[in-house]
Design brief:
Layout: E1 28-35, E2 41-43, E3 49-66, H1 67-77, E4 82-85, E5 96-99, H2 100-103, E6 107-113, E7 118-138, E8 141-165, H3 167-171, E9 176-183, H4 197-209, E10 212-217
Parallel strand pairs: 1-9
Antiparallel strand pairs: 1-6, 2-3, 3-5, 3-7, 4-8, 7-8, 9-10
């Protein structure tokens, strides 16, 4: 697994109150997270069932990745979605702990980015911790499903189309933008029906890493 260069993304860490050095005054991106509505019983894609008591995900920070850095990273790593070990540099604020069973279907505010004007092609999330408790039906029998894992992963997720943040948008009154990070936790349990106990946790972590999408709204508070 390849670590991405620390200079590959402009340091635009979430900050609820502290000003970032060098940002364009008035240019802000409000960040939120939204899990798809979740039921206690999940049907997996291979016909198995999962019954959950706990499903929690902690995300420490988020950065925007400029398009030139994103293109360079793709050239080095290949896939359109890649992750690496490592800790986001600099002070971290605005992290969230998502209780997927209870927060599903609601938008959880995580803070405000104050970026430099530019074109951004991806967001980099620092995933901190995952905790799962419940039962899984695998191979026709029910087994316990319980683990808590420190992820400590940087996950880079691309926008469907670049997010343009520039002075023209600011002057037109679109200085306040919104970025919503969405995921469906039901996808976390796909393909686990025939895995051994040793491979189960890592398979769920891999599914978590692939479950995120980004929604960029022209104004904070709009839905898409």
């Amino acid at each position: 697994m390849t670590s991405e260069p620390r200079g590959a993304a402009v340091a635009l860490l979430l900050s609820a109150g502290a000003a970032c050095v060098g940002y364009a005054p008035g240019l802000e991106v409000a960040v939120s997270y939204e899990a798809a509505p979740m039921t206690l019983a999940v049907l997996t894609d291979d016909g198995g069932r999962v019954q959950l008591d706990t499903a929690e995900l902690a995300i420490e920070a988020l950065e925007l990745v400029p398009c030139d850095a994103w293109t360079a990273a793709l050239g080095a790593l290949g896939p359109a979605r890649a992750w690496a070990h490592g800790v986001v540099e600099g002070e971290s604020a605005g992290g969230v702990r998502l209780d997927v069973l209870h927060d599903g279907g609601t938008s959880v505010a995580a803070g405000v980015l104050r970026p430099l004007p530019g074109r951004y092609c991806a967001a980099r999330l620092h995933l901190e911790r995952l905790a799962i408790e419940g039962r899984a039906e695998r191979g026709g029998r029910w087994t316990s499903l319980a683990f808590a894992r420190a992820l400590d992963r940087d996950l880079r997720v691309p926008f469907d189309a670049p997010m343009d943040l520039d002075a023209d948008a600011l002057n037109a009154g679109f200085g306040r933008n919104a970025l919503r990070v969405r995921f469906d936790a039901a996808e976390w349990f796909d393909g686990i029906g025939h895995l051994s106990e040793e491979r189960l946790a890592e398979a769920i972590v891999t599914n978590v890493l692939g479950s995120f999408t980004l929604v960029c709204n022209p104004r904070a508070g709009t839905d898409e």
